[in-house]
Design brief:
Blueprint: E1 16-21, E2 24-29, H1 39-53, E3 60-65, E4 69-71, H2 76-81, H3 90-108, E5 114-118, E6 121-123, H4 125-132, E7 135-139, E8 143-145, H5 158-162, H6 168-177, E9 181-182, H7 183-189, E10 194-196, H8 198-213, H9 217-231, H10 235-250, H11 253-264
Parallel strand pairs: 2-3, 3-5, 4-6, 5-7, 6-8, 7-10
Antiparallel strand pairs: 1-2, 8-9
Helix pairs in contact: 1-3, 3-4, 9-10
């Protein structure tokens, strides 16, 4: 069976702290008080996600945050300061939103599952971060909003992830009103998977992560890639694509081992191949 190694906590210098334990890589936003997605924060988070691709000890990624705010979105002070540039900030704004789009796509396209652990406010691009993850588990105290319309900056890029998680009517309700919804409403909308008491949040997220980490990483990677690929296709193309994926999956060593173990009523020994 593929070995899952526990590694002691290592705190990175900068706005993202890193901890790896039993195959679960925890990336924690540590940029208080708002954990805003400045260029530096996005670069640090993207770098850690990229690094995890080549680390065979990592099997699942958890995104969490320190403090009372999960993520307040883009750093508006950083953006506003660049209005003094000769181009009124256009180049910097383009750079910022391109970096944000790259970060969100890095999560969706990442070979490993990414779980958001949300305790506190997730607003604008912070909500976008939650919506981009494969799973999201929130405490009862978590809240969510896309309030850009209130300050003259419609949440156009957050709507991409939001509208791929909730219905159009619910997405437009959030985008047009800018109002904050509680965690239970976010669950009912489909933005988060579960809502749990704050004191159990870390424990429950860790259980989810370790359950997923115990599976064949190659099979999980295959499934995640196929899920997002087929979601962007028409019905016939989706079935054709996933049919090809199933054939290749059946030929993989771990499928042979897993099916054999099921028939033989024994625990599978994954090779991640």
């Amino acid at each position: 069976m593929a070995e899952i190694v526990a590694i002691k906590q290592a705190v990175a210098e900068g706005p993202v702290t890193v901890r790896l334990d039993k195959g679960v890589l925890r990336l924690t936003l540590a940029n208080p008080p708002a954990n805003a997605l400045s260029l530096g924060v996005m670069a640090a988070l993207t770098a850690e996600l990229d690094r995890a691709k080549d680390d065979k000890a990592v099997r699942v990624i958890v995104l969490s945050a320190a403090g009372k705010v999960f993520c307040a979105g883009h750093d508006l002070k950083e953006l506003t300061a660049r209005r003094a540039d000769p181009d009124r900030g256009r180049a910097f704004f383009e750079q910022t939103f391109a970096a944000c789009a790259a970060l969100m796509q890095a999560i969706v396209r990442h070979p490993l599952p990414v779980i958001a652990e949300v305790d506190g406010l997730a607003t604008a691009a912070g909500l976008q971060l939650v919506a981009s993850c494969d799973l999201a588990i929130a405490s009862h105290e978590a809240t969510f909003c896309t309030p850009g319309v209130n300050i003259g900056l419609f949440c156009s890029t957050p709507m991409v992830a939001l509208s791929r998680n909730v219905s159009r009517k619910q997405a437009m309700e959030m985008l047009l009103t800018g109002e904050t919804i509680d965690a239970v409403t976010a669950r009912d909308f489909g933005l988060v998977n579960r809502v749990v008491p704050r004191e159990y949040l870390n424990q429950i997220v860790t259980k989810y992560a370790q359950t997923i980490a115990s599976k064949s990483s190659s099979v999980v990677k295959t499934g995640k890639e196929a899920f997002y690929a087929q979601a962007e296709m028409g019905l016939a193309d989706a079935y054709a694509h996933t049919g090809r994926v199933m054939v290749e999956n059946m030929l993989a060593r771990d499928a042979q081992e897993g099916i054999g173990a099921f028939i033989g009523k024994r625990k599978p020994e994954w090779t991640d191949e």
